[in-house]
Description:
This protein is an all-alpha fold. It has one domain. It contains two helices and no strands. It is rod-shaped and about 195 Å long.
Amino acid sequence: MEGFKIYFDTIILQIINFLLLFFLISKFFLKPVIENLEKRKKIIEEGIRNQKEYQEKIENIKKEYQKFLERAKEERKKILQNALLEAEERKREILENFEKILEERKKEFEMSLKEKEEQAVFRAKEELKEFMNEWFSKNFGPSQNKELISKIVKENE
């Protein structure tokens, strides 16, 4: 083995060179890369925590929204029921008022008819008196005329 020689000074220089290179790489390159990876790891972990928190918040908001919708539906039902009740009450009041007005008009019409009937009967009696007065005057004379007319009028009243 003549061609193969071990040079210890080269090995020591290589070891020193390796350690120096390792130190420089770890100090200036590896350390910042590891720090950067650690920062990224923390950011990712924080993002996962935030995502879980946001997911919980979203679920809570969904639940609140569903509750709100249920309350809104119930409120809408109550409002509709109240509106229907008020409409029915208003309808009943309008019908009652309309019935009262109709009853008043009916009474007024009946009174008007009664007055017109009385007026018609009165006119008919007056015309009958005039007719009888003329007829008796022609057929019996003025003195008997008054007595007969009075007698007939009293019987008809």
